């Protein structure tokens, strides 16, 4: 039985302009080299759905947003059920996703369950398997195109470890986004060595100069 891994009861950082909580879903269909949520990804979780609902009940009037993260929240069978519980309590819902489960996202968006999405653009096609340990690039692209097609409210972000992605990669990824019609901010998050991660990575040996990025999109930096 799939469960939720943990809940962060309060954050002002994870959902733009919202006071929120983060529900961390166990399990993931990628194994990104820089991912430090190893415990979350490898876990089946330990929090039952009814416990999450009780938490939501206690936060009514105290929070205005809930973030679903992971792991990959859309890969967890509880995703749609809990999204409905969140919306039935009138919270706004933000979803952090790698974009690999478009059918789940379509269903959730069709039911008006999601208010905002943070979509992870892991790597260009040639480097995608090396970075994510998966062959899910085309699924990501399908999700990106879908969100653009329906004019959904979302951001695109990329975690940068300079030994895996360089300025030319980011320039290419920005160009892909622009050519598909994305006009929002492109957020770059610097890899921070916080201990254990799937690739046993430490801080990058290669340098990374964001000023060398060629982009028609506004580049926004986090942790740089």
Can you give a write-up of this model?
The mean pLDDT is 96. The chain has one domain (4-222): TIM Barrel (Alpha-Beta Barrel). The protein is globular and about 50 Å long. By secondary structure, it is an alpha/beta fold. The longest helix has 14 residues, at 167-180. The N and C termini lie far apart (39 Å). It has an eight-stranded mixed sheet with strand order 1-2-3-4-5-6-7-8, with helices on one face. Helix content is 31%, strand content 21%. Keywords: Iron, Iron-sulfur, Metal-binding, Oxidoreductase, S-adenosyl-L-methionine. Residues 15-224 form the Radical SAM core domain. Its EC number is 1.97.1.-.
| Percent of residues in helices | 25-40%
Count of helical regions: 7
Query: What is the CA-atom radius of gyration, in angstroms?
Result: 17 Å
For this structure, the quaternary state is single chain
H/E topology pattern? EEHHEHEHEHHEHEE
Structural class: alpha/beta
Which fold name is given in CATH as the topology?
TIM Barrel
Strand order in the sheet with the most strands: 1-2-3-4-5-6-7-8
Q: Calculate the mean pLDDT score and round it.
A: 96
Report the portion of residues in β strands.
Answer: 15-25%
Query: Would you identify the regions where 5 or more consecutive residues have pLDDT less than 50?
Result: none
Q: N- to C-terminal separation? A: 39 Å
| CATH H level, superfamily name | Aldolase class I
Which of globular, elongated, flat, extended, rod-shaped describes the shape? globular
Number of separate strands: 8
Q: Which sheet architecture does the biggest sheet show?
A: 8 strands, mixed
Total individual domains: 1
Using the coordinates above, name the CATH class: Alpha Beta
The second-level CATH architecture is Alpha-Beta Barrel
InterPro entries: Aldolase_TIM (IPR013785), NrdG2 (IPR012840), Radical_SAM_PqqE_MftC-like (IPR050377), rSAM (IPR007197), rSAM_sf (IPR058240)
Protein name: Anaerobic ribonucleoside triphosphate reductase activating protein
Domain Radical SAM core: 15-224
Pfam families: Radical_SAM (PF04055)
């Amino acid at each position: 039985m799939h469960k939720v891994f943990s809940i962060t009861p309060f954050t002002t950082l994870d959902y733009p302009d919202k006071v929120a909580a983060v529900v961390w879903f166990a399990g993931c269909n990628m194994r990104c080299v820089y991912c430090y949520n190893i415990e979350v990804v490898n876990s089946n979780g330990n929090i039952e759905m009814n416990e999450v609902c009780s938490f939501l009940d206690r936060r009514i009037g105290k929070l205005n947003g809930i973030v679903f993260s992971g792991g990959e929240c859309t890969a967890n069978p509880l995703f749609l059920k809990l999204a409905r519980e969140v919306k039935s309590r009138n919270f706004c819902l933000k979803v952090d996703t790698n974009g690999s489960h478009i059918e789940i996202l379509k269903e959730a968006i069709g039911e008006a369950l999601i208010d905002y999405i943070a979509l992870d653009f892991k790597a260009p096609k040639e480097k995608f398997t090396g970075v994510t340990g998966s062959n899910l690039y085309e699924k990501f692209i399908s999700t990106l195109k879908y969100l653009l097609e329906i004019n959904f409210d979302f951001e695109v972000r990329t975690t940068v470890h300079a030994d895996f992605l360089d300025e030319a990669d980011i320039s290419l990824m920005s160009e892909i986004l622009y050519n598909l019609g994305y006009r929002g901010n492109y957020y770059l998050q610097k890899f921070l060595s916080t201990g254990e991660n799937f690739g046993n990575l430490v801080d990058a040996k290669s340098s990374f100069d964001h000023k060398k990025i060629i982009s028609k999109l506004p580049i926004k930096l986090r942790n740089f």
